């Protein structure tokens, strides 16, 4: 995360253009970059499909230029190629004009008829330069392509996909493979973009990593390389009190949620984990968790007494808590105690009528883990997911984990990570409680809040991925040791 030339860096389309320019200034020609890009597309296609008639849809910019290069390579390898261009060849400029000139073969107008008889299609209409929703001939061809369901190799992004947001501008034909250059863009990771791209291949076209040093990159793809060096593995001379004491506040009725959070917290390595619960629910908790201690709360529900234990260094409030004055009080007491805090579920929703009361109370390390519904109760921000999470982190002063298949983790200082390893099996009750516990367990062991949130989200996805179909939330904590063992064994292997 500290190194801007990290392979997990995600570049905005503007940053990618800057990287290209810097490469050109460093003496690598734009013509050579385009040659490498188009050649990579041709080899991805020939590696995946047998030789057959391929239609190549070229746009008026450099994305189209890549299409001309791919066309030449495939034709020279004996593929029947049919190339269609949006607009007039004479209007092409720069590197694209150069490579169009090298294509000494037919150029057809861009119409759906181009697809007749094609076994597969290369979509090189628009990439980083998409500036508005598809319309006219481009929209007709992409609509016909989507309708016919032909296999597609997209160049950089499927045309119509916004590389910065993963949103569709107008329409998109889903691709089987997307070949992109140098680094992924956020739109490759964010939904619906990630699904529309199919398999994503990132290829080296000769842009040196050193060009990244000059770019203010703040968005990364999640992976152990971002946080593993700071992972709090136990040390031989350690004892449990050095591994933190996490306190999960348990609800009166929905007791499963806090138990899930507490178990996950313990599994990820917190030295001690306790649940503080209303006295009336004490026996339910105490009878069902073994390594986790259970404290009965006073009648008033106040945490004052339990918080007099100075060893408690992290609190989790929200799972199964209920949207009530009591939950609100617990969240505010937790924050006022200046310990690290994870607020999830009801501890987020309970502030929906006055979010500012929550934001003003956040002074220390705090992680909010809302799903979309909870997020919208607290933050009135519109726009793409990445921007909303970043804005929310800035306005609240907390690390915001905006959950979903493409969870975004954002810090108030602008650091942002997009997660990509979570399988759809996670869409089942209680998995969010487990996530809250994992993050708290890492913070208990001294991990910085943003690292803990990022690592916790990755471990959660990986645990679910290893378990696979049939996952229940209670299966997740038990998978954590396996994930940790793999991390230890394989270290930074990707
Ligand atoms: N050296 C490099 O930089 C390298 C770049 N590479 C490749 O270049 C790609 C970026 O190229 P790019 O910047 O030329 O943009 P591109 O995506 O081709 O589109 C721009 C054109 O489309 C037009 N247009 C936009 N939206 C439209 C719409 N809805 N409907 C109709 N027209 C629309 C737009 O017109 P305008 O908006 O100006 O009216 C303009 O004419 C990148 O994705 C990668 O594939 C590789 O070769 C590696 C080296
Ligand atoms: N389709 C999906 N693919 C991947 N992960 C998902 C999907 N749906 C939900 N998740 C993940 O599952 C968890 C669900 O959390 P949450 O909605 O709080 O559930 P609960 O309140 O039941 O615990 C989150 O970590 C979320 O990112
Ligand atoms: K494209």
TrEMBL record:
K(+) binds at residues 63, 123, 159. Binds 1 potassium ion per subunit. Its cofactor is Mg(2+); K(+). Keywords: ATP-binding, Isomerase, Lyase, Metal-binding, Multifunctional enzyme, NAD, NADP, Nucleotide-binding, Potassium. AMP binds at residues 403-407, 432. Homotetramer. Catalyzes the dehydration of the S-form of NAD(P)HX at the expense of ADP, which is converted to AMP. Together with NAD(P)HX epimerase, which catalyzes the epimerization of the S- and R-forms, the enzyme allows the repair of both epimers of NAD(P)HX, a damaged form of NAD(P)H that is a result of enzymatic or heat-dependent hydration. This is Bifunctional NAD(P)H-hydrate repair enzyme.
């Amino acid at each position: 995360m500290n190194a801007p030339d990290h392979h997990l860096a995600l570049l905005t389309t503007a940053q990618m253009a800057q990287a290209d320019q810097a490469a050109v200034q460093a003496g690598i020609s734009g013509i050579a970059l385009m040659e490498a890009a188009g050649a990579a597309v041709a080899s991805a296609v020939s590696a995946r499909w047998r030789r057959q008639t391929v239609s190549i849809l070229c746009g008026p910019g450099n994305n189209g230029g890549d299409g001309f290069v791919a066309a030449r390579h495939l034709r020279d390898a004996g593929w029947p190629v049919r190339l269609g261009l949006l607009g007039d060849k004479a209007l092409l400029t720069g590197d694209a004009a150069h490579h169009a000139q090298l294509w000494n073969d037919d150029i057809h107008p861009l119409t759906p008829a181009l697809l007749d008889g094609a076994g597969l299609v290369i979509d090189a209409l628009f990439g980083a330069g998409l500036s508005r929703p598809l319309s006219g001939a481009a929209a007709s061809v992409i609509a016909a392509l989507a309708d016919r369901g032909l296999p597609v190799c997209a160049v950089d992004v499927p045309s119509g996909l916004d590389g910065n947001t993963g949103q569709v501008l107008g329409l998109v034909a889903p691709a089987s493979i997307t070949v992109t250059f140098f680094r992924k863009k956020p739109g490759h990771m964010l939904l619906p973009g990630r699904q529309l791209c199919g398999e994503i291949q990132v290829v080296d076209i000769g842009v040196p990593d050193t060009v990244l040093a000059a770019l203010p990159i703040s968005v990364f793809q999640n992976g152990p390389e971002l946080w593993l060096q700071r992972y709090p593995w136990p040390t031989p001379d350690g004892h449990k009190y050095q591994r933190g004491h996490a306190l999960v506040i348990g609800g009166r009725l929905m007791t499963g949620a806090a138990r899930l959070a507490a178990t996950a917290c313990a599994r990820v390595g917190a030295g001690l984990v306790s649940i503080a619960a209303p006295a009336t629910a004490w026996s339910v908790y105490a009878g069902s968790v073994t390594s986790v201690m259970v404290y009965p709360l006073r009648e008033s529900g106040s945490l004052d007494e339990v918080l007099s234990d100075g060893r408690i260094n992290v609190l989790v409030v929200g799972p199964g808590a209920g949207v009530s004055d009591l939950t609100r009080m617990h969240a505010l007491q937790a924050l006022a105690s200046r310990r690290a805090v994870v607020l999830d579920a009801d501890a987020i929703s309970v502030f929906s009528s006055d979010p500012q009361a929550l934001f003003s109370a956040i002074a220390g390390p705090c992680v909010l883990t809302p799903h979309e519904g909870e997020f919208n109760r607290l933050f009135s921000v519109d726009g793409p997911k990445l921007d909303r999470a970043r804005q929310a982190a800035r306005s609240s002063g907390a690390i915001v984990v905006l959950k979903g298949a493409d969870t975004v983790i954002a810090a108030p200082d602008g650091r942002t990570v997009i997660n990509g390893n979570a399988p759809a099996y996670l869409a089942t009750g209680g998995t969010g409680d487990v996530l809250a516990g994992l993050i708290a367990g890492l913070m208990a062991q001294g991990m910085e809040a943003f690292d803990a949130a990022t690592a916790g989200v990755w471990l959660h996805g990986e645990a679910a991925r290893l378990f696979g179909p049939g996952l229940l939330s209670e299966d997740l904590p038990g998978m954590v040791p396996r994930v940790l063992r793999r991390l230890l064994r394989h270290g930074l292997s990707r």
